[in-house]
Design a protein that fits this description.
MIP18-like; globular; single chain; Metal-sulfur cluster biosynthetic enzyme; FSCA_dom_sf
């Protein structure tokens, strides 16, 4: 069976998703200095047989000038997940991001209650 035709179990897909999220913790928002997972910017991760990953993310503001930098950092971080051969990062604006999506760690680091 080639990598393209290999069928992953639900457990394998969940394991890959977990490692993807660990990799995304290495992607730091350059303005805030916190990773995109703890900021709550990663909305959805879909993994498909053959190694294709579709990731839906948002940014803290619609006019964020660093969208390209963050996207490039995501693509570089995804290289650490060997099962993933292609990644498509989709920027979404709904639902709108707000501070309620942040983890406790991010809130403490940024001084938000």
């Amino acid at each position: 069976m080639t990598k393209e035709t290999e069928v992953w179990t639900d457990e394998q897909i969940q394991d890959v998703k977990n490692r993807i999220m660990q990799a995304m913790e290495q992607v730091i928002d350059p303005e805030l200095g916190i990773d995109i997972v703890n900021l709550g910017l990663v909305y959805e991760v879909n993994v498909f047989n053959g190694g294709y990953c579709e990731m839906k993310i948002t940014l803290t503001t619609m006019g964020c000038p660093l969208a390209d930098v963050i996207t490039e950092d995501i693509l570089n971080a995804m290289k650490t997940v060997p099962e993933i051969t292609e990644t498509d990062v989709k920027l979404v604006w709904y639902p709108a991001w707000d501070t309620s999506r942040m983890s406790r760690y991010a809130r403490i680091a940024l001084g938000i209650r």
